[in-house]
Amino acid sequence: MSVSVTSGTTLDFITVCFRTELPLLRLQARSMDRFLAPEGVGRILVIANDKDEDACIAAFETVRADWGRHAGRVEFVRGSAMMPGRFRGPLDRVERLWVAGPRCAWRHWRDRLLGRRRTIYGWGLNAGWLMQQAFKLYAARLVTGSHAVILDAKNFFVAPADAGLFVAPDGRARVAMVTPSPKLATWSSASARRIGAVLAPGATMPESSTPVVLRAEDFRAATDRIERAVGPLESFFARRSAQSTEFMLLYAATGGGNADWQRRFAPIEAPWIRRLSATEPGDLARALAGCENAPEPMLALHRKWVFRIGAEDRAALARYLPGRGLLADEAELEVFLAG
Prior knowledge:
Elements: E1 11-17, H1 22-35, E2 41-48, H2 53-61, E3 74-78, H3 90-100, H4 107-113, H5 128-138, E4 147-152, E5 155-157, E6 173-175, E7 177-178, H6 182-195, E8 205-206, E9 212-215, H7 216-230, H8 233-240, H9 246-253, H10 259-264, E10 265-267, E11 273-276, H11 283-291, E12 298-301, H12 303-306, H13 311-323, H14 332-337
Parallel strand pairs: 1-2, 1-4, 2-3, 6-10, 11-12
Antiparallel strand pairs: 4-9, 5-12, 7-8
């Protein structure tokens, strides 16, 4: 997709990741090298959400070369380094100390007692999917480009794309609007209540999944508003987020669909990502067959599918990825998935 954008548009890409997702990060990196036009790309920020940040950063370094022509733009960031250490009072300090260590210190002992495979948890041994929400918001303060594009490690490009995929010609951030499901309606209303925001009535709202695009100044202002309302984000998502999500909090904090929000966001004009699943054997093979002539320039494939698929789906993936130039050949898939 190629659409002219406002002069001066620069995109900073943000991916929060931990060691278990390293094969997916490598796939994303290769796809950016192959398909993402360098014009308009600023920094590529990869944030470590891992109980052992040093080991995570070292693992990230093994992927750097896969970004190819974008490798010089890549920066690896420890999630803990983004935490500002601002507290609303002594209770925030106590909660932060609890979340940083004692709260989840028992997890490895439980896993060992139950004979479970050793799990790589997020920062402070907290659940990775909760901590990544905090880190995505904190990343607002690292953005130096005009816009931020938040990705998950599961997202990768499969066709040529440029800044016009994410930013409208008038500079508005593009957004995928959907009819809210009951779950999305719950998340959005809970998120708005958390920060004292009001959502504008409407038949649609943004998807609560990546990619998510924001103007840098909107991203920073929204994160500041959320943090003022809920306190340290790592503590909030670890213990108190309930039905709130990072993207619905951003939606509420940027206007929640009101007239001002509409002046800053532009609904996408064509689908930009196709989400794959493999609930039953053969699902992924059929989904990939449908991707051959699909219009979406991006795919999403969660690690829970990648590492559990059977022979038919594995063979289909081994054919599809080399066909897109993301693996050298079918035999490379096993090496690739091994990290």
